[in-house]
Sequence to fold (332 residues):
Amino acid sequence: MKHEVLIENLQEAVEGQFNAKERSTEIYNYEKYNNLQQIESWVANMAAANPSLITTSQIGTSYEGRRMHLLKLGKPSSSPKPAIFMDCGIHAREWISPAFCQWFVKEALTTYGSDSAMTSLLNTMDVYVLPVLNVDGYDYTWTNNRMWRKTRSRKSGSSCIGADPNRNFDAGWCRIGASTNPCSDTYCGAKPESEVEVKAVADFIRRNLSSIKAYITVHSYSQLLLFPYSYTTALAPDHEELLRVAKAAANALTSLYGTQYTSGPGAVTIYPAAGGSDDWAYDLGVKYSYTFELRDTGRYGFLLPESEIRPTCQETMLAVKYIASYVQKNAY
Ligand code: 0X9
Ligand code: ZN
Fold:
């Protein structure tokens, strides 16, 4: 195998992620990476300050007992509203992902009433945002190992910890691009939904399936906009439409700073890998199912500097808003 050293000095890159300026404690800082405790109090504060647009709920408890908070954004309505479900932080080390979910919530609240697309979106649809899915893993990347990817579940008979939550969904489970070795970073788990965090999300989506019309999951890195399938190279029944929407969303993203994105089905655009949330949601009946792989393409990788949070989130907003408006106009 050919290899190339992308990061010569990892420690320096780890430290370089954080902006040099003093970390502010007064107001919430969306341009810094926030730890789980900060995100938890942010969720509580956002809900308390915006009762007319946000409700929160706990959709589950992680393996190590942390709460999984879900925000529901939208103007309350007497008739049932279609919804979009978006999660961030499936993979612990992909810090730009939770940063984007937080950015999205902030933008939704601050532009509701002035931005016509956002106003109409929240008037006619609900957006569920799960800012950190893999809460145990995310916390672990702050306290122990910045490069941790998986959950933190223990398995009898192995000293290795965690399963890959994006190999643990019930979609061609562990058939391809996943490992049965608990020590692997792509370990698929003991069975589909063995990870309580995955089960909590799957249960929520199953329970709300009649309203959920789109599923968006945010990862990093590689600058890709993926859609089903990843567990097979067969094309999804809605391939053409999914590709058309992905390309238009990626164009919207590129229009801001020229960041290049590639769109396509996961199996051929990144690699075949079963057990992913996007394929699972799609096969369940959520037609508009997308995986974002945010910046960059490997210069910093998971250690994307904080100075790139703002541009990354701003450009990604355009793509997510494009998909949301499309779904809004193409109810099914
Ligand atoms: O391998 C993954 O889970 C994702 N890439 S990442 O580098 N963030 O780990 C890609 C997921 C694509 N979708 C599926 N494999 N279902
Ligand atoms: Zn990921």
In short: Residues 90-91, 94, 219 surround zinc ion (ligand 2) (CB under 6 Å).
